[in-house]
């Protein structure tokens, strides 16, 4: 069995997972928000490895080592920029979660932490993002029930945390 949980905090400080997910941009060369925090905490080795990846399409995911972070791996995924919902944003956000879980599973990663992808600078509405996030990951876990021990959402502010928490409550 696996555990799904939400906590309020800084994803760079999480110590109980093998991989953390980065809400990156298409360049994979760092940015603001959680991306900047992860690069600062991981150190310059992360940027050096990211340069070899030649970017990432929206909804796709790529993996690197964790460098100075306490996790072994960082999975970089690129969320959609919210544009009123007319540009397949919902599908692309679901792809971020599915492809991150698939990449983790394919690398033998059994514990993973996600931030709230796309709901910062990319302006995706938090309520809708949380529904998509929890639903997509829960479906993946049901389809692959022996592959994970822990999925953790690490939310930076109280409102986001309460929205994700209430979505998690709905699946139990
Ligand atoms: P995006 O460009 O995908 O919207 P952002 O980094 O701007 O990504 O925001 C995504 C979410 O991550 C927001 O809820 C933001 O508050 C949150 N966030 C920012 N820094 C951290 C951090 N260190 N740990 C966890 N979440 C963070």
Indicate the topology.
Elements: E1 3-8, E2 19-24, H1 33-42, H2 44-51, E3 61-65, E4 73-78, H3 89-106, E5 111-114, H4 126-143, E6 150-155, H5 158-171
Parallel strand pairs: 1-6, 2-4, 2-5, 5-6
Antiparallel strand pairs: 3-4
Helix pairs in contact: 3-4, 4-5
Bound molecules: adenosine-5'-diphosphate (ADP).
- What's the assembly state of these chains? single chain
Structural class: alpha/beta
The percentage of residues in β strands lies in 15-25%
Question: Uncertain spans, ≥5 residues at pLDDT below 50?
Answer: none
Averaging pLDDT over every residue, what do you get? 98
Question: Can you count the beta strands?
Answer: 6
Bound small molecules, by name, code or SMILES, are: adenosine-5'-diphosphate
Question: Over the alpha carbons, how many angstroms does the gyration radius reach?
Answer: 14 Å
Please, how many helices? 5
Strand-and-helix sequence, N→C? EEHHEEHEHEH
First-last Cα distance = 13 Å
Largest sheet: 6 strands, mixed
Order the strands across the largest sheet as they lie in space: 1-6-5-2-4-3
Q: In which range does the helix fraction lie? A: 25-40%
Question: What's the shape?
Answer: globular
């Amino acid at each position: 069995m696996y555990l799904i949980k939400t906590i309020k905090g800084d994803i760079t400080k999480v110590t109980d997972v093998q991989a953390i997910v980065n809400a990156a941009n298409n360049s994979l060369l760092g940015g603001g928000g959680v991306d900047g925090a992860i690069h600062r905490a991981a150190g310059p080795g992360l940027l050096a490895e990211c340069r070899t990846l030649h970017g990432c399409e929206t909804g796709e995911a790529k993996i690197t080592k964790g460098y100075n972070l306490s996790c072994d791996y960082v999975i970089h995924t690129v969320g959609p920029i919210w544009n009123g919902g007319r540009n397949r944003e919902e599908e692309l956000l679901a792809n971020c979660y599915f492809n991150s879980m698939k990449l983790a599973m394919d690398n033998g990663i059994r514990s993973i932490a996600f931030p709230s992808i796309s709901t910062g600078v990319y302006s995706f509405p938090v309520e809708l993002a949380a529904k998509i996030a929890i639903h997509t990951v829960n479906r993946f876990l049901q389809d692959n029930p022996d592959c994970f021990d822990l999925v953790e959402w690490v939310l930076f502010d109280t409102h986001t945390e309460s929205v994700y928490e209430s979505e998690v409550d709905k699946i139990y």
